[in-house]
Structure formats: structure tokens, C-alpha cells
Amino acid sequence: MTVMLVTGAAGFIGSHLCDALIERGHRVIAFDNLSMGRMENLSQCLDHPSFSFHQADVVDSDTVNSIGAEAELIVHLAAYKIPRYGKAIDTLRINTHGIFNVLDLAAKTGAKVVAASTSDVYGKNPDLPFSEESDSLFGPSTVPRWSYAVSKLLDEHLALAYQEAYGFPVTLARLFGSYGPRHHLSWWGGPQSVFINAIIKGEPVEIHGDGLQTRSFCYVSDTVDGLLRMIENHNANGEIFNIGSVQEISIRDLAFLIKKISKTRGDMKLQYVPYETFGKYEDVRRRIPSIEKARQMLDFEPRVTLDEGLRQTIEWQREQIQ
Ligand SMILES: NC(=O)c1ccc[n+]([C@@H]2O[C@H](COP(=O)([O-])OP(=O)(O)OC[C@H]3O[C@@H](n4cnc5c(N)ncnc54)[C@H](O)[C@@H]3O)[C@@H](O)[C@H]2O)c1
């Protein structure tokens, strides 16, 4: 049994990770300010004797230090994601101050830190698939969307610099589009979440840009499996890993696939929203990971097909919006 501090525990990925850690016999100290997470996500863990929850802000260093003092391993997931809708300051503040506090704690206690980064750190790099050694290519600072990628890239540099300076192990997970039950029922949860809502309700599906931009979607049990391998495998120490699915799909095709799997009646109406609607905005045209490193070093392999994952997610989402 390892004592683990999980920040962002009440969020989408965090709550599934907590379920898995408890099931594997670890003690979990869950930490979340509930700004985007929900206690309901943790309902499976709440009564477990090895689980405790603390509503607290990761930006507050004293709180992080006192709540995390006993932790032998810290999984840092607390973050703000999408600056497109005007949360750029929160994104930059939480994503940078948060990791400073987590790393300062680990520098004192020697705990291993596994931190969530993002596929967005590859930015507009046109060379696919992205390997962990690929370049980061961002647009100008006048485009707020890059602030998320920049904050996560700074997190990565900070984690590696602290490891070098203080000697505790860090592992960085570059997560690619995770989806599944408990994802947010808004754009915060990703396009699949919004598309499922619209399709179930028979409303127009909002496509940003021409819909030919591509992404890959990884079912949350596979994302969590990747994180568990990074948590439990010493080979992962000091390393960065892409964790995601290698199946590339355009956003428009994703809408058609969800429509087909949901077996809803009637035609689907696509409503194209130009990027200009979001002010000065740039999108990533294609995004697909190489997961060779995680395959070789961690024996990681996503198992849930997109069809099956979407089927389960649609089923869950139907229950949520009824
Ligand atoms: N979901 C994805 O597809 C994806 C892709 C790439 C990277 N990531 C990263 O994975 C991590 C988890 O993402 P998620 O999808 O579960 O997001 P989420 O928003 O569901 O979870 C994040 C959690 O952090 C909490 N939080 C935010 N600010 C906080 C603060 N100041 N103090 C304490 N808690 C705070 C929120 O309440 C929320 O519960 C994030 O770091 C995110 O950047 C996710």
C-alpha cells in the first residue's frame, strides 16, 4: 500500500483514478476545490476506509503542505483546461502555481510526482504522429488558446528541473483526448460530450471550423491504465509518455459516428461555427500520438475501441440528461 495524494481528484480522470487506486489497495488522499469536479464522481470511494477527501485549493501552498505531508506519491491532475472561453488567467495561475506547490512539497518529502500534461504541448507541429521528442510549435501569445499549452509545458520544465535539483522522481503524462462516463457535459468535457448531448436531444451539432481537423479519443479506463503504469513502474521515473489512442478521426466523422452508435431517429443537422467567433483563435489541424515509448517501456496498449467506448459513454450520458 502506498499513500497517494491525488489533486483534481473529483474531476473526470481523477475520480476514475481514485476508484482504481483504492481497488489496488492504496491509500488515497483526494484533493479538489470542486471548481469543476463533483463529489458525485467520488461516490464509489467516499465510504472506503483508505479514502479521504479534502476540499482545498492547490494554489494555497500551506494547505498543500499540510494535506499532502504523508503522501509517498503525488498524482497532480488539478488544472484549468480551456482558455477559449475567457479563463486564461485561471488557466495560467492554477496550472503554474499548483505545480510549484506540489513540487515544493515533494522536494521536502521525496514523494514521486506523476503530473498530467497534454497533447496540446505539440501545438501546431505538422509532423505526425507526435513522439515525446517532437517539437512544441505554438502560435503567437496574442492567441489566448496557447496559454493552456504553455502552462503545461512550463509544468513539464518545472517538474524536470525540480527532479534534477532535489532528486525525487517525476513522470509526465501527455494525455490525448480522454472521454467516458463522468466527463463534463460541456465543451470542458470535449467535443464528444457536446455532440452526444446534441444528438440525444435532436439538436444541431456545433462543429467548430470545417470539422476536418482530427483528434484521437482514448476511453478513460485506458487513460487510467496508462497513469497506473506510470505510478507503479520505476522505469517511468524521469520520463515523459504520450498516453492516448492512435485512431485518428476528424471531428465531423466523430459526429457521424456518435449519431450512428446512438441509434437516434431523424437526420443530424451540423451547425458550422467559424473560428472567428472565439476572437483570435488558432486550432490544431491534426493530432495523433505515437505511443511506442509507452508500449515498450510500460507495456501500455489502449484496449477499448472507439465504437465500444462511445456506446458506453452515450448510455451513461442518456441517464444524466433524462
Ligand atoms: N480530459 C482530457 O482529455 C485531458 C487531456 C489532456 C490533459 N488533461 C489533463 O488531465 C488533468 C485532468 O483532466 P480532467 O479532464 O479530469 O479535468 P477536470 O476538469 O474534470 O478535472 C480537474 C479537476 O481539478 C480541480 N481543480 C481545478 N482547479 C483547482 C484548484 N485550484 N485547486 C484544486 N482543484 C482544482 C477541478 O475541480 C476538477 O475536479 C488535467 O491536468 C488536464 O489538463 C486532460
Question: How would you characterize the overall build of this protein?
Answer:
- The chain has 322 residues and is an alpha/beta fold.
- It has a single domain (3-181, 218-246, 286-303), classed as Rossmann fold.
- Helix content is 38%, strand content 17%.
- It is built from nine helices and 13 strands.
- It has helices spanning 12-23, 61-67, 88-109, 146-166, 191-201, 220-232, 251-262, 292-298, 306-321; strands at 3-7, 27-32, 51-55, 73-76, 112-118, 170-175, 178-179, 205-208, 214-216, 218-219, 240-243, 248-250, 270-273.
- The strands form four sheets. Strands 3-2-1-4-5-6-11 form a seven-stranded parallel sheet, with helices on both faces.
- Helix 4 links the parallel strand 5 and strand 6 (170-175).
- Helix 3 runs parallel beside helix 4 (146-166), helix 5 (191-201) crosses helix 9 and helix 7 (251-262) packs across helix 9 (306-321).
- It is globular and about 60 Å long.
- 45% of the residues are buried.
- The model has no long low-confidence stretch (mean pLDDT 96).
- Bound molecules: nicotinamide-adenine-dinucleotide.
- Nicotinamide-adenine-dinucleotide (NAD) binds next to helix 1, helix 3 and strand 5.
Short recap of the structure:
The protein is built from 9 helices and 13 strands. By secondary structure, the protein is of the alpha/beta class. Strand 4, helix 3 (88-109) and strand 5 (112-118) form a beta-alpha-beta unit.
